[in-house]
Amino acid sequence: MKNLKLTSINGDPNHKTVIAVDGVRIGIDFVVIAGPCSVESEEQTIKTAQEVKAAGAQMLRGGAFKPRTSPYDFQGLGLKGLKILQKAKKETGLPVVTEVTDPRDVSWVCEYADVLQIGTRNMQNFSLLKEVGKMKKPVLLKRGMYSTLKEWLNCAEYILAEGNPNVILCERGIRTFETYTRNTLDLSIVPSVKEVSHLPIIVDPSHGTGRLSLIEPMSLASMVAGADGIIVEVHFNPCEALCDKDQAMSPQMFAVLMKKLNLLGDYLKEIKKENGKVNERISPFGSEGLEMPNLITQHPAE
Ligand code: PEP
Ligand code: MN
Questions:
Q1: Mind listing the pLDDT tens digit for each residue in 278-293?
Q2: Is-contact 108 89, C-beta < 8 A?
Q3: Residue whose CB lies within 8 A of the most ligand 1 atoms, among 33, 37, 145, for a mutation test
């Protein structure tokens, strides 16, 4: 892809960006970010944070600025919400991922956020991208709901070009003709990103499907596809959620998901080890240099 000077692997498939946030390593470990869609109250956020922490989540999500389709829907608590997130971090130790929607808010939101989220609707808000690019905080850049891989990586390029190398991509589903799901979760983008970019990529199966029953299978599938983690909406009392309640997992559901992810992670490690052994056996017969069966066909650079 042309002009992706900073985001592309530039011919080096071993070049991987790893972003450390309070000891959480995004780009090496499979990282689970969980929490409510929006911060609604201190009780709701702290209780949810405690539940997701107990189940094994490594980071807390929660929106204080909510970009809603209708201006009459709950818009988030703003500064009050950020202070609640800060308190939740103090209680649980979980670093905070929260959305910023306005370039004028970026510098002060950094005082409360460990990772700045750019939502799908703002993926191509270039003044916002430039502003977060001037900061040191990692940025979680969601894929625009109508965006191609190239458009998305160009947006990441805006952030890197301003001097901030810490970008995490997040697939959250795209608009297609399908209406059964809220969006169409494009898991093929995960290995595609890995082919062309060194940036880590996580998956949001909550917005990607909008259906509670699909979040677990899509989370497991994300791990198999090679994602660096997931971001999932969990509410301590989903029926009461002010935002996205149809896709909010209960803490119990989330705990089951975490158990399955851990089992799957162990299983995938075993497969990797087996691959290593197979290759050791192949080597003496003249296939040296073959590390993993690699079925990826390299197309000529565009
Ligand atoms: C969110 O994660 O809170 C959110 C609004 O997601 P998206 O921008 O992907 O719709
Ligand atoms: Mn949501």
A1: 766 655 444 443 444 4
A2: no
A3: 37
pLDDT in tens, 25-68: 999 999 999 999 999 999 999 999 999 999 999 999 999 999 99
**Ligand with an atom nearest the CA of residue 33:** 1
The 8-class DSSP code of residue 250 comes to P
Residue pair 103/128 in contact (Cβ under 8 Å)? The answer is yes
Measured in Å, residue 119 CA sits from the centre of ligand 1 at 5
Please enumerate, as own/partner, the contacts of 216-222 that have beta carbons within 8 Å and a separation of 24 or more: 216/253, 216/256, 216/257, 216/260, 218/185, 218/187, 219/257, 219/261, 220/260, 220/261, 220/264, 221/187, 222/187, 222/190
Nearest to 123 by CA among 82, 79, 160, 158: 158
Q: Which residues line ligand 1 (CB under 6 A)?
A: 37, 63, 99, 119-120, 142, 172, 204, 207
Give the pLDDT confidence score for residue 282 in this predicted structure: 59
